[in-house]
Amino acid sequence: MLYRLVQVFLGTVRCQVQFGWTVARGGWYMASGGAGVVGRELEGRSGRTMAMGPKTAVGRAWLGGLAALVLLAVLAVLSLTEGSDPAPKAAPGTAQAAAPGAEGAPAARVARRAPQDPLAVGRVDAPVVIAEWADFQCPFCRAYTLDTEPALMSQYVDSGRVRVEWHDFAYLGPESVLGARAARAAGRQGKFWAFHDALYRNQPPENSGAVTDASLAATAKALGLDMARFERDYADPAIAAAVKADQEQGTRLGLSGVPSFVIGGRILVGAQPLQTFQQAIDTALTQNR
Questions:
Q1: Nearest 5°: phi and psi at 64?
Q2: Kind plus residue range of the DSSP H or E element containing 242
Q3: How far apart are CA 287 and CA 264, in angstroms?
Q4: What is the dihedral of CA 27, 31, 36, 41, to 10 degrees?
Q5: How far apart are CA 287 and CA 279, in angstroms?
Q6: Cα–Cα dist 136/140, whole Å
Q7: pTM for this structure?
Q8: How far apart are CA 62 and CA 101, in angstroms?
Q9: Which secondary-structure segment (H or E) carries 165?
Q10: What's the CA dihedral at 184, 186, 190, 192 to 10 degrees?
Q11: Pairwise CA distance, residues 185 & 213, whole Å
Q12: Helix, strand or coil for residue 63?
């Protein structure tokens, strides 16, 4: 587009200069007794005629040259501006590559790889880490957990090739935060994943009032947790802060919905088919050989 505008503008300037120079030549020719064009009448906007003399024509030629110089200056500024345009964003719901430069790309630094991490499953030194952001009230997260995740666990985690690390994205309502706090409290007793599975298996409608302190305590009791410790941890401000920090990290990555995943430095959004996850994981495994 910029190139086309330049062509049009230069063409206009060239015509302006050529026309002014032609009229000027005619004026000087007429002054020497020849038949010039200086007395040619031009139709004005008001319907009256106006004559262009040789001085006016020469001035018009100089004006055209000045305009060309101004254009060159403008083009220099535009070329610098265009060079700083950001890259187009990927469409939502598709795998998005992290920005170039592994250390500078947020998606490349999400793996915790912390030993004894209660919110992770799989070898600490697994070649690939799947970082998952999810909400315990989200029906799509439930679909992924029940329909897709078991096959990934069996195929990749049990073989030591993949590690899964959980992150809270409790954004659907207050009951999402309650569930996230309770699961982390269970995690302090080594039962995060059991609590995680129970919440998804028995997921009620969003914000229906079914997720309460009492219902979460009942789930903890059914899993055989130390109830005094569970209630103490459930009320711990540090757990609430950790839930909030996870969501803030996801927001910084550009995540706006759940479930969302970072697999080998690439973002994958939604409860995609099993084959989509397998392809993303296999690609990451190949890159990490």
A1: -60, -40
A2: helix 237-252
A3: 9
A4: 60
A5: 12
A6: 10
A7: 0.64
A8: 51
A9: strand 162-168
A10: -60
A11: 12
A12: helix
On whether the CB atoms of residues 159 and 123 are closer than 8 A, the answer is no
Give 10-residue mean pLDDT values along the chain (289 residues). Answer: 40 39 35 33 33 38 46 43 34 34 49 95 97 98 98 98 98 98 98 98 98 98 98 98 97 93 93 97 93
> Could you tell me which residues come within 8 angstroms of residue 155 by beta carbon, excluding any fewer than 6 positions away?
278
Query: CA torsion 116→256→88→93, rounded to 10°?
Result: 90
Number of CB atoms found within 10 A of residue 18's CB:
12
Q: How far apart are CA 235 and CA 241, in angstroms?
A: 11
Distance CA 248, CA 274 (A): 28
Length of the chain in residues, anyone?
Answer: 289
Go through 70-86 and write b for each residue having 16 or more CB atoms within 10 A of its CB, e for each that does not: ebeeeeeeeeeeeeeee
DSSP state, residue 101 = S
Question: What Rg do the C-alpha atoms of the chain give, in angstroms?
Answer: 35
Side chain identity, residue 284: A
Token output for 277: 């996850």
C-alpha–C-alpha distance, residues 92 and 133, integer Å: 16
> What is residue 109's predicted lDDT score, i.e. its pLDDT?
78
